[in-house]
Design brief:
Helix content of chain B: 55-70%
Number of domains of chain B: 2
Number of strands of chain B: 2
Structural class of chain C: mainly alpha
CATH class of chain C: Mainly Alpha
Order of helices and strands of chain B: HHHEHHEHHHHHHHHHHH
Distance between the termini of chain C: 14 Å
Oligomer: heterotrimer
Mean pLDDT of chain C: 86
Number of strands of chain C: 0
CATH topology of the largest domain in chain B: MetI-like fold
Strand content of chain C: under 5%
Low-confidence stretches of chain B: 1-9
Number of domains of chain C: 1
Helix content of chain C: over 70%
Largest sheet of chain C: none
Chains: A alpha/beta (443), B mainly alpha (316), C mainly alpha (322)
Chain lengths: 443, 316, 322
Amino acid sequence: MKKVLALATAVSAAAFAFAGPADEAQAQSKELTLCWAAWDPANALVELSKDFTAQSGIGMKFEFVPWPNFADRMLNELNSGGKLCDLLIGDSQWIGGSAENGHYVKLNEFFDKEAISMDNFLPATVYAYSTWPKGSPNYWALPAMGDALGWVYRKDWFSRPELQADFKAKHGRDLAPPTTWSELKEVSEFFQGREIDGKKIYGAAIFTERGSEGITMGATAALYSWGFEYQNPDKPYDMEGFVNSAAAVEALDFYKGLYKCCTPPGYTDSYMQEGLDAFKSGQVAMMMNWFAFFPGLHKDPVVGGDRIGFFVNPGQKVEASTLGGQGISVVAYSDKQEEALQYIKWFAGADVQKKWWSLGGYAVHNAVVQDPGFEASAPFAADFLKAMSGVQDFWQEPAYAELMLAMQKRFHDFVVADQGTAQEAMDKLKEDWVEVFEDEGKL
Amino acid sequence: MSASTAHSVVDAKPWTRHLSSALVILYALITILPLVWIFMTGFKTPQDSISYPPKVVFEPSLEGYVNLFTTRSRQTPEYMATLPPPDNWAEALVRDRNMVIAGPSKFGERFLNSVIIGFGSTFLSVFLGTLAAYAFSRFKIPLKDDLMFFILSTRMMPPIAVAIPIFLMYRSVGLSDTHLGMILLYTAVNISLAVWLLKGFIDEIPLEYEEAALIDGYSRLQAFIKVVLPQAATGIAATAIFCLIFSWNEYAFALLLTSGTAQTAPPFIPTIIGEGGLDWPAVAAGATLFLIPIVAFTILLRKHLLRGITFGAVRK
Amino acid sequence: MAESTTRGLEKVAERAARATPPGLARRFSGLSDKAVAWLFVGPTLVLLLAINIFPLIWTVYLSFTNYKANRSARGYEFIGLRNYERVLTDSDIWQTLQVTAHFLIWTMTLQVILGFTLAWLINKQFKGHGFWTTIILLPMMLSPAVVGNFWTFLYQPQIGLFNYVIAFFGGIDPSSFSMLGDVNLAPWAIVIVDTWMWTPYIMLICLAGLRSIPDYIYEAAEVDRASKWRQFWSITLPMVLPFLMLAVLFRVIENFKMFDLVVELTSGGPGSITELASINLKREAFEKWRTGYSSAFAIILFVTVFGVANIYVKALNKVKQR
């Protein structure tokens, strides 16, 4: 028994030793940890960052979290004052809270010192990814990755003569990428349940995820096209008649109609990955997803190349797209802020930005997007610029999480779980949001 | 419930016996099916894993395990052509999919975290639990029953409820996302089980041994170490395994209080993804590796299982 | 019974303690029995006070404030019972409690029926019953999060094993239904997985109950010519009942707190159809970060479990005494 006890003591002592000094050892060697979502562009960033390590001698470690858990994990990390991440490529909606609570280092002084000008980046991204309060020259991040919600379709299917003829007979126009949501629904219905190459296929893969932000991002793509506004443009936080406007109700109803008629079976809790699964396995004719995935899809051995086409989010009453994308920030709890800033300085360089785009990251530096060859550099590049010129984002308020979760619940309850009407959903959502802003002392 | 281990009813008739054996075996087969499926899926290729109808016979592949332990990046065929021949079978397997291995995945780290936190907290809870259980078993302690009930009642709180203040507490003392923080937390949760189980085991050790030792001139401490501990060894081992299983399987606290450095496998395994979709063989491979130790322990523990799951309330 | 044995032992222990010459103990370690006792119990109590009781008190404190843990910069103020009022008048909260009740009632019903039946069958002592029992016990020892996550794969329309098996025996299209996505099926999907996982728990305890019934009682009943049916109702069931009730108590407490399995299965969806109290609590506390509000909800949940458990234990003791 004595031996067993001694052994156990040794083991646990070793465990403690491992738990404690390991952290210290880490601090001594120069190594930065960058946190982001686990997706295609992250792999590109790993590749890109090798240059930084070669140049500066600072090693890079990465912590990539899958999207459905990304916000949860990272906000939890920031709120607990954790030191896991030195650099964080955080979602645009987090800016308000992270600035207010001091999670991010304010970058103005650093930008001035290093002559990094925000004028060199797409204005929509600077506004959305970097500033708080919105539009003020207070910068908390450098635009790292532009992104918006767009669509892909099976070009090879769309161009089949028999399908072309069939569609024309039915709808009196050519089978082509839709330019309005009504057209999109017609095309989806056309493909839904059809057999192509002996396989049953479905109309469209759209976002319906419940847990994080999926259904909000998807449904707002429709809402924005119907001219949705979060608040009275003349009176902040005045939402009655805006959030629950007739147009908003109509758009939500439409989104549910699309979900009911034209999605693959069991498509009740789907976000980016599920959409990619459905599209890559040849189950759907069209898919809603972020531009971030388009370079990877274009390279895909099964559905890529000539078989894939891209189009911007269709309009309805107006042209608009849901904003994605992130800025890169220095975490205030990091012990290695100097090195982290060094990384941002390196990343902001024009050549690095160009390489970033060539590797599959959406650089929004003017050196990239204003290059005459940009629109021709990829089949989706022109669409990307078009989308970015009309992007809208969710609330970026410090209370963003509460606002988001309320929308997730109301939308999923109505669209997927069939509870109540669209009007009720939007009314309830407005009430939820009023309650949040009352708690905030903003109403 | 100690005395009677008498078997069964007055002789079951052979046909009822056959019928019951058939029904029980049927249930057992149904119940084991999902586990067998996890095991099998781990050895499928991603395509086979999502084929319809589900494949029962398939060519086994280690792709799931390779994907579990590596991160990979997709490359163009032109780039692939420039590479030297693969230096190991894993690299070769990955190259067949037009990818190269980019580095190790986080699975190894997370698994190691589970081991460190699991064993650390188990050791601590059994150590403290043995001391407390001995004291509760042998000494007169004021309000003994109340204390014992208090120790048990700490188990009734929903973990999320406790997690709120612990989150705040750990944040202010810097224990968030640390091994030490998780070890202390799991110890606090496990100790109720440890005390209750161990008290039961120690109660069963006849007092005569200790009395004899005391009369021989041993001190209390000596008697405890030299007489009681060896006698309670089986009980201590069983208790340790129960504590280990709890820490091993725990999810809620790990999800809320760790983000990377000290994250254990349970919140991590569901987030294993491959390129462009949930990589079920890799998830299944991770689940298999994670579940196998517990299956082994369960078989080892068969005799003490009942006691363990009821906090010693039922001893057979 | 365990309790009386414990008491008996305690008395002996006390006598032994008194019998030991105090000087003898002190000579070797310098510690009296009393000191040893507190030295042994102390660390455990300190740990529990620090990591269980102190947090509980803190939760109570927070429940009277409008504190938000993600907004430390903002400060907070006392708002009295306002959080409790809001929780109790929130229709969403009542919905999660309804969902929890549905889950509890059906998992318990199914598990009691299945668990008892299995125990009763295994108690027939057929050949190889030990092996099969161990097989049946496996699911309950495994990590609910990991296993729950894998069940989402089994439940996939078309490619999922569950759908395929149902389709095979039911003659319907395996892609025609989605256990986790359908509003009518999802509440049953979580009941099925919980039942798969925890039926062995009830079974194992019932088996102990069945084995505790001495043969002579049945022999006496045979002599009295009592029918098998009567024997079951007047001997087997009453004798197993205390065991069964204990098993149900443990399961109810655990399932009331249920989080990991269902989060990984549905994370509360579709909509809020499977949003159990704990899942809602997690959303409020760690996604919306309404610390004060969720603390009030946590306290209400804790008091409920504690209260129900106490009432139940009283009932259990009555059954035992009979």
